[in-house]
Amino acid sequence: MMENQYSDRCRDFDENYKLVTEKLCKAAEKAGRSPQDITLLAATKTVPPEVIHYAIEQGVTCIGENRVQEFLEKYEALCSTSCDLQFIGRLQTNKVKYLLHKVSCIQSVDSFKLASEISRLCLRENAHMDVLVEVNIGREESKGGILPEALPEFVDQIRELPGITVRGLMAIPPDCGDPAQLFQYFSSMRQYYVDIAAKKLDNVSMDCLSMGMSSDFPAAIECGATMVRVGSALFGKRK
Ligand SMILES: *Cc1c(COP(=O)(O)O)cnc(C)c1O
Prior knowledge:
Blueprint: H1 7-30, E1 39-43, H2 49-57, E2 62-65, H3 68-78, E3 84-87, E4 105-109, H4 112-124, E5 129-135, H5 151-158, E6 164-171, H6 179-198, E7 204-210, H7 217-222, E8 227-230, H8 232-235
Parallel strand pairs: 1-2, 1-8, 2-3, 3-4, 4-5, 5-6, 6-7
The structure holds pyridoxal-5'-phosphate.
């Protein structure tokens, strides 16, 4: 490794990556699942491209950004890598245009208006977008997402839109500090995911259940997450 201003952060990453990978494998094992069936998405907000590049060299295959502006600033530095780029943050309809042809998936679709705009632009730009439906599992006013009871109808509505494919569900549960409650949230998500998959709807393939972050990803894996989004546990605390 070259010694430079990022050396410390890269060394920290090495240690963190090992720990996160161990925890991921352990949780998978506990649930009788293969670690290979769980994608580790590195949430890279505030992380400089140099450190992201290092993470990719060490084996990270998927990264997620949650602000359009920051994503665009880093895009030139990241687009040449083989890493899968996804968008995980709240998205305003007027910013969808910046993501087409640049990310493989928008994980935060939570309104018909947003889904329609993604679809409209995909058609116009000859693009395609995979989307996850964000579920407001804790019914929090401060968070985006579709309420659980509205989920079946919402999925049914947006699957008709051309240019997009519904690939699964995403959630950010409340920061509740109660493990039993957390398991409840994650298990409910898993149930919604299974219920929708069972309908075998056209243009809907439930193959991504994105839930679990630094503080709770092992629990999410035990409850069936196929993707965990981990930031600070990999890159250190954000300032
Ligand atoms: C930042 C972020 C994460 C990762 O959060 P950590 O607690 O740092 O692991 C996951 N998902 C979304 C949508 C985020 O914005």
